[in-house]
Amino acid sequence: MENGFDSRGIPEDLRIAQTQLILSSFRDVLGRELIPSTGDAARDAQRLFDAEFVVVSAGTENDPILNYGNATALRLWEMNWEELIRTPGRKTAEPMHREERARFLEKVREQGYVDDYSGIRISRSGKRFRIENAIVWNLTDSEGNDRGQAATFADWTFLDWARPTRT
To answer: pTM of the prediction?
Structure first.
């Protein structure tokens, strides 16, 4: 457990099922592994949760709600698990960037994935950060049903909008 974030508060069956969906969809859409599989679903779920890069996913609601975030995502957005799974994905972007985000997600739905996304996001406390080189992909279950979208990225920069000093 690092910085107070661990996977103990997340129902194990949900954590494992969502991790398997994320990993299998990534492999199916991008043709490579997000993390090397160990063959043990519970171990893979813990490894993805503990990864040093961000992984988040959202469902298929009209206003998609986040349904997974690993420990790095929870720290970056300054949320605990319960806060995350009640958050519409659009609220991770500032209002002025939400329309752009919606257009982008429609492009992902049509193409299957995008692997070079960059954009501004905002944490729960209002900290702004720019994500770079994000991969966003569609989640599809074994029957081919749409289960939402997921994203991963390892590059982000906090934006410091300090007030100018008076001279």
So the answer is: 0.86
